[in-house]
Amino acid sequence: MIRDIFENAYAAGAYSLAGVVLMAISFLVLDLLTPGKLRQHLWADRNRNAGILVASNLAGIAIIVTAAIVASDGRLVEGLTYTAVYTIIGIAVMAVTFALIDVATPGRLGELMLHPEPHPAVWVQSVAHVGVSLIVAAAIL
Predict the structure, then answer these.
(1) Which residue range(s) make up the domain with 122?
(2) Is residue 57 within 8 Å of 97, Cβ to Cβ?
(3) Which of 20, 50, 63, 86 is the most buried (most CB within 10 A)?
């Protein structure tokens, strides 16, 4: 029993670290897709549109990481590999989705996402982030 607890704690730590690193990568990609510094828009400017966009992105990454953990069925190395590979795929598809929505809509999507007034485009993009993540998660499972 004690051995199981230590093995599970080790796995939880490894998955948590992988998840945090992958969330940081997804934040950096999102920062590249939007004008200015995303950290500034979030914490200094308190931009709600930026908050919604980042929150949906992080939730999407968490969905993919969770699916990878479930799919690993207790095999840590395989699960961490699933986590890394499928989350990178998810981040890439989210970026492509952002670009496609940008092409399909008037104006520059990144600027609309960070407008100080609430904008419906942020909800569309946020749902796209979560939708892509659910699709990738289903592919894992």
Answers:
(1) 2-140
(2) no
(3) 50
